[in-house]
Specification:
With 261 residues, the chain is mainly alpha-helical. It is built from eleven helices and no strands. This is VPS9 domain-containing protein.
C-alpha cells in the first residue's frame, strides 16, 4: 500500500463509496463486459477498458465534495479500480518472455562488481539491501502509483546518497541502476514497467525519471554479455598489475623517504 493510502484513509473512502453506491455501479458493468470479451480482445483494448472505468468513476465522484486532497482521492479511486482488474491486465505473454530472459541475465551478471558496468568514476554506494527489498516488493502492489513509488524509494536514496547524482554522468547512473537490478533480481520487473507505462497517465516528473532509468538499465542488462564483461575486468586487473610492475622501486623513487642514521 502506498505510504499515502493509510488504513484510516481507505476506511474513510469506503464510507464515501457507501454514500454513493450508484456511482460505483460502472465497475460491475465493466467487470461483466470484461468477463464476456476477455478472450476476444487485445491487451491494448483491455487497457482502454480499464482506463475508461477509471475515468468514469473519477467523473462520477467529481460531482461531490471529496473529503480528500485531489491526489489522495485519485489514488483511492485507482486502488478501487485495480483491486477489481489487476489480475486480468497485469501480465501478457510478450512481457513474460522478456522477464524470463531478464531473470537469467541478472543471475548471470550478479557476481560482477559495479566496475564491470563501466561507470566513468569511482562511485561510493550506501548499503543496498533496503533498495533490493524495495524492488522485490513491487509485486505486492496493484496500482501504478504504488509501483512507481516502490521504484523511487528503491533508487532515490542511492542516487542521491552523499550528493553523488550531481557528479554522475548518465552512464554512471545507468551503471549503478544496472548493478542494483542485477543484485535485486526483482521478479517480473519488465512486466511491472509495462504495467506502469500502460496505466500511469499521471506519473510525476520524479517518478518518470526513476522509471526511465530502470527501463534503460533493463535494456542495458539484456544487451550485456558475460564474456565481454569478464574480458573488461581482466583488462582492468591487468592494467593495475602492469602499473605496479612498471613502477620504479622505492629506493629509486623521487619521493623516497630518507632516514637519519
Amino acid at each position: 500500500m502506498s505510504s499515502q493510502l493509510t488504513d484510516d484513509i481507505l476506511v474513510k473512502f469506503s464510507q464515501f463509496i457507501n454514500e454513493h453506491q450508484t456511482d460505483v455501479e460502472p465497475i460491475k458493468q465493466f467487470r461483466d463486459w470484461f468477463e464476456n470479451h476477455k478472450n476476444n480482445t487485445t491487451h491494448e483494448e483491455q487497457v482502454k477498458m480499464v482506463d475508461s472505468c477509471m475515468l468514469t468513476l473519477l467523473f462520477n465522484f467529481s460531482q461531490y465534495d471529496s473529503p480528500f486532497t485531489r491526489e489522495v482521492h485519485f489514488m483511492c479511486v485507482e486502488n478501487l479500480v485495480f483491486s477489481n482488474f489487476y489480475e486480468d491486465v497485469f501480465l501478457e505473454n510478450d512481457s513474460l518472455k522478456i522477464d524470463e530472459q531478464f531473470a537469467l541475465k541478472c543471475k548471470e551478471l550478479s557476481d560482477f562488481p559495479i566496475e564491470a558496468f563501466r561507470p566513468t568514476r569511482n562511485i561510493h554506494l550506501p548499503r543496498l539491501e533496503p533498495s533490493f527489498e524495495q524492488l522485490r516488493s513491487i509485486n505486492n502492489y496493484k496500482t501504478p502509483t504504488e509501483k512507481v513509488e516502490s521504484i523511487v524509494n528503491a533508487l532515490k536514496p542511492v542516487l542521491y546518497f552523499d550528493n553523488t547524482t550531481t557528479q554522475m554522468t548518465c552512464d554512471d547512473i545507468i551503471a549503478v541502476v544496472s548493478y542494483i537490478l542485477c543484485n535485486a533480481q526483482s521478479p517480473l520487473l519488465y512486466s511491472n514497467l509495462c504495467f506502469i507505462r500502460d496505466f500511469d497517465k499521471g506519473i510525476s516528473t520524479e517518478g518518470d525519471f526513476f522509471v526511465t532509468q530502470v527501463e534503460v538499465a533493463v535494456q542495458n542488462i539484456l544487451g550485456s554479455q558475460k564474456e565481454e564483461m569478464d574480458r573488461y575486468m581482466d583488462e582492468m586487473v591487468g592494467g593495475v598489475e602492469s602499473k605496479i610492475v612498471s613502477s620504479p622501486p622505492v629506493s629509486n623513487a623521487n619521493s623516497q623517504v630518507k632516514y637519519c642514521k
